[in-house]
Design a protein that fits this description.
Elements: H1 10-18, E1 26-29, E2 35-37, H2 43-51, H3 53-63, H4 66-77, H5 85-91, H6 109-113, E3 130-132, E4 137-142, E5 150-151, E6 153-154, H7 160-164, H8 167-172, E7 177-183, E8 190-192, E9 198-199, E10 203-205, H9 214-217, H10 223-226, E11 229-235, E12 241-247, E13 255-257, E14 270-274, E15 279-285, E16 290-292, H11 294-301, E17 305-308, E18 313-317
Parallel strand pairs: 1-17
Antiparallel strand pairs: 1-2, 3-18, 4-7, 4-17, 5-6, 7-15, 8-14, 9-11, 10-11, 11-12, 12-15, 13-14, 16-18
EC number: 4.1.1.65
Keywords: Decarboxylase, Lyase, Pyruvate, Zymogen
Protein name: Phosphatidylserine decarboxylase proenzyme
Length: about 325
């Protein structure tokens, strides 16, 4: 699975990324049926960090460190950061009517960043046999991990045992299905349960905080398996145990869990939220338990992420 850039042949696109030349990031919008070019927040800083020698030095000496993200999160917690909210809403076309609170009611940009939405803004698919997207974002699926040819760069896949920090668990899910959901800074940053069940405790697996933007992932897809992350086992009635993960990234101040372990949850219930920054979630299903929707599978095979919102159907439980 390779990441396709507009106007390029797939191989040429990957070569340009690996050589450090940033091109447009294209995803498919489920709702409009059109391919769209991503408007990258912090584009200039991202280019400098991953495409220049001074930037790469800064990346490894500071940017990937937890203290850097804590420092940036502290800045976004300050009252002065409120002045960023209005331009952000305007520049990225957000709809304030979806927010529980109006933009002028937030005490800081970070508070706005992990804002809650009105329930009617993200309705949960009501079919008893559906599985839903856990977050707003750009999604890729792998129906069978044992047959995956790569993620973002053909032939390069992150190591499952490293991701899960558990060899036996990796063996159990080696032929399972995977959904990777990438959240941009402009997205709603609360994440939800994809199905009903009983969740266990969230296990923290520490690591650095590299960017999870495709610019970074095309250079090193192992970022997904080594960044700071959390792992929760969700026991379900019809799908066995679903592995639910949150992946931290540069400038993500915290991965915050809001659910209570061992208490039953309904499909679409909130699990937690990310503080400031782009980030990702990963779902891993037992082999043969889920059939992903055709548009998700088709776009993933065509090397495109599919944009879809939390609560919408991503697939069906296999009886």
């Amino acid at each position: 699975m390779r990441f396709l850039l507009r106007g390029d042949e797939p191989t040429a696109a990957v070569d340009r990324y690996s050589q450090g030349t940033m091109a447009e990031i294209v995803f498919h919008d489920r709702y409009t049926g059109q391919d769209c070019v991503e408007k990258v927040y912090g584009d200039a800083f991202l280019r400098w960090t991953y495409e220049t020698l001074p930037g790469k030095i800064a990346l490894h000496s500071a940017v990937k460190r937890a203290w850097f993200s804590r420092w940036y999160g502290w800045r976004m917690d300050r009252e002065k950061s409120r002045q960023k909210i209005g331009p952000f809403v305007r520049d990225y076309g957000l709809d304030p009517n979806e927010f529980v609170r109006s933009p002028d009611q937030f005490a800081s940009f970070n508070e706005f960043f992990f804002r809650k939405l009105k329930p009617q803004a993200r309705p949960i698919d009501s079919s008893e046999s559906s599985v839903v997207f856990p977050a707003d974002g750009r999604h890729l699926c792998v129906p069978d991990l044992s047959k995956c040819e790569g993620l973002f760069v053909k032939g390069e896949m992150f190591d499952l045992a490293t991701l899960l920090d558990d060899e036996s668990l990796a063996d159990r899910y080696a032929s399972g299905g995977l959904l990777l959901s990438r959240l941009c800074p402009v997205d709603y940053h609360r994440f939800h349960f994809p199905a009903a069940g009983v969740p266990g405790s969230a296990r923290l697996i520490n690591g650095p905080l590299f960017s999870v933007n495709p610019i970074a992932l095309c250079q090193n897809v192992q970022i997904l398996a080594t960044n700071k992350r959390t792992l929760t086992k969700l026991q379900t009635e019809h799908m066995g145990t679903v592995l639910v993960m949150e992946i931290g990234a540069t400038c993500v101040g915290s991965i915050c869990q809001t659910y209570q372990a061992s208490l039953p949850v309904a499909k679409g219930d909130e699990k937690g939220y990310f503080r400031f920054g782009g980030s990702s979630t990963i779902l891993i299903f037992e082999s043969g338990r889920v059939r992903f929707d055709d548009d998700l599978v088709g776009n993933s095979k065509a090397n495109r992420e599919l944009y879809a919102r939390v609560g919408d159907r991503m697939g069906m439980v296999v009886a």
